[in-house]
Amino acid sequence: MSREIKEHNLEGLRKRICTLFLQYIKTPAFNPKVAKLLKVYKKPSELKHKMFFCHGCHRYLCSADFGSCASGRWSHWCRNCTRLDNIARSRDEDSMYKSILRRLRTDEHRLKTEATIPFLLQ
After folding, report:
1. For the IQ motif and ubiquitin-like domain, which residue ranges apply (predicted)?
2. Tag placement on the chain: N or C end, fewer CB within 10 Å?
3. Which pLDDT score, from 0 to 100, does residue 102 have?
4. Inter-residue contact 74 to 63 (CB < 8 Å)
């Protein structure tokens, strides 16, 4: 400001200083009380094998937040996204049509006609 630089030109510098200050106060070496609030893992190599990416919410989550598939592999969606998808998915009730088709097949089979159309219907 002593060099007569306009205020809107210093906006990027101010944002950078604020970001660096936030990083500084999040460091437990300089701010011991923040250590209780931060989630720090002891071994990053172990963390690499326990974290997975959820394709539903696009976040990295712990393996406990995922369910396993029938094949024994991990699912690509976390439990929360799977639950939301299950709630939101529309379902079609076609049991009435299945019972009509079943009755049609039994009636045609009982008549022993040469018509095969009811058996080809799905």
Report:
1. 1-48
2. C
3. 87
4. yes
Q: CB of 68 within 8 A of CB of 75?
A: yes
How many other β-carbons are positioned within 10 Å of the β-carbon of residue 44? 7
Sign of the Cα pseudo-torsion (31, 37, 39, 40, in order): positive
Tokens standing for residue 19: 């970001």
Locate the DSSP E strands across the chain: 51-53, 60-62, 66-68, 74-78
Helix, strand, coil percent values for the chain (each to nearest 5): 55, 10, 35
Name the pTM for this structure: 0.38
Position of tokens 């101010």? 14
One-letter amino acid at 33 equals: K
Encoded amino acid at 13, one letter? L
Tokens 């996204």 belong to 81
Matching residue, tokens 């058996």: 119
